Structures are given as structure tokens and as C-alpha cells.
Amino acid sequence: MTQVSENKVFGGRHVQYRHQANSLACDMRFAIFLPPQASENHKVPVLYWLSGLTCTDENFMQKAGALRIAAELGMAIVAPDTSPRGEAVPDDADNSYDFGHGAGFYVDATEEPWSAHYQMYTYIRDELPTLIEQHFPVTGEKVISGHSMGGHGALVLALRNPGLYRSVTAFSPICNPSTCPWGEKALSNYLGEDKTAWQQYDASILMVKLEQDQHIPALVTQGGDDEFLEQQLKPDTLVAAAKGNDYPLSYELQPGYDHSYYFISSFIEQHLRFHARHLGLA
Ligand SMILES: N[C@@H](CCC(=O)N[C@@H](CS)C(=O)NCC(=O)O)C(=O)O
């Protein structure tokens, strides 16, 4: 692991690292925020933040305004990149923003040529937390959150791995990727045309299948003036799935907010405090 940058912030540290990711067969950069409470004598829990299309580890750390609250709560934050990277990693032929580099969709691809590198589900679930827990003063307690494509990733990881995370939240998640243009493009390319393979990456489908003892606290916040709301995000499908299965999902539609980090920064404190309650920090 190689350190790329370090900044003191709110009494804690924001540090970027590069490392060789075995699951992705490439070099990856991630960022970690360590709150002032973190030390060898005091390990802290971790929030994994999954960003949306076009993002790297930097968008959330620079724009969300999360670090002041995380410093107060004593919560580490890890922000990975949104896809495998580098010249050896195949990208979309059209260089589009919604597939390939910057658009890994947090799936383990099974189709050529994507499957050699696009294994973001395994990277986020297994490889990255193992690395983080080896090198930093953190406990094994985890929560997960994300935005848009990353909101989809956070929900899927939490729903498929009961017990791995204490709570899950999402901002404007892609709730039903099997039936929206972003999801159809990504899942058909990464997983193939057989839609049964897509179901394991569709939060609205996963949510109806879970038993009561597999439920974890979940919060979704959506901007009412989000330009992607109707065609891409489809929160009503997720809300209906939760209702049908008594899933403890809090859903909040916030009028007037769009899809941007202005929206995320307006509600990130609420999300961090939600996670802190379920981690027993507050
Ligand atoms: N119009 C955007 C579409 C992609 C987009 O809205 N990305 C969201 C996530 S889905 C984002 O977080 N963008 C980066 C940022 O706002 O910092 C673009 O072409 O970049």
C-alpha cells in the first residue's frame, strides 16, 4: 500500500492510498478518514461510502461535508473508487459516462471482456475491508451508504449479506436496475442477457426475499426534483417491496432537491447519525 496524500481535517486525518487489488487485477486508489478518536488503544467502526457514476474516492470526501460529523461521532469513513482503473482495464468503446471506467455498478462481472477486472462486489465486500482492518485502528463493525449507482451498491451489499453491516442508507439509489436504462446497459454487459442473473443485484427484488431476522435498519433519502427520479431511480418500487415484506425501510422524499452533492451535503448528517445510533456511538 502506498500513501498518495494526507491532510489533517477536523482533528482527524484524510489519507489517500494506492494498492494492488487482487480481486480487480489492477491498482486502485481509495481514501480513508480517521477521526481524532482512532488510535491503537481505541478502534473505531467504519462507514463504507459507495459513490455514483463518474466518481472517484474524491467526490464524497471533498463535497459531502461528512467529515465534521464523522469526527464528532468517532466514525471512520472509507471511500473506494467506482470501478477498476488503468489502461489494461477495458472501458466502454464510446467512452460513455454510464458504463466501464467510473461505472462498475458494484457487480462481479461474468462476461468477457469485463470479468477479468470488474469484480467490484467482491472488492467492496471482502478485499477492501480485510485491507482496512489489517492496516488501520478500526473494529470489524461496519455500516454502508452510497449515492445513485453507489446507493444501489450499498443496498445490494447489505441485503445480500445479512449481519455484515449494522445499517444501510442510500441517497437517490438506483432501486430497480433490472428495469431502468442505466441498469439494463450495465447488467446486460457485465452479467449477460439472462435476466435471472441480474436479480442478485436488484435491491427491489432482493428485499422481498429476505426473512425477518435478516432485516437491518435502512434509510433512503431522495430529492424530489432529481432529474433521474422517474426513468432511472424508481424508489416507489423499493418502497413497495419493503412494504410487502415488512422491511424496516425509512424512505424520505425531500422536495426541491436534485441529484447532486448539494443534496447529499444537506442530509449527510442525518445519515451519519442514523448509522451512529445503530453502531451504539450515540
Ligand atoms: N451529468 C452527470 C451524470 C453523472 C452524475 O450525475 N453522476 C453523479 C452520480 S450518479 C455524481 O456524483 N457526479 C459527480 C459529482 O457530482 O461530483 C455527468 O455526466 O457527469
UniProtKB/TrEMBL annotation:
UniProt cross-references to Gene3D superfamilies, sorted A to Z: alpha/beta hydrolase
EC number: 3.1.2.12
Keyword Acyltransferase assigned: no
The protein's enzyme class: hydrolase
Gene that specifies this protein: fghA
Highest taxon, organism lineage: Bacteria
InterPro entries: AB_hydrolase_fold (IPR029058), Esterase-like (IPR000801), S-formylglutathione_hydrol (IPR014186)
Name this polypeptide is given: S-formylglutathione hydrolase
Pfam family, one: Esterase
GO cellular component: cytosol
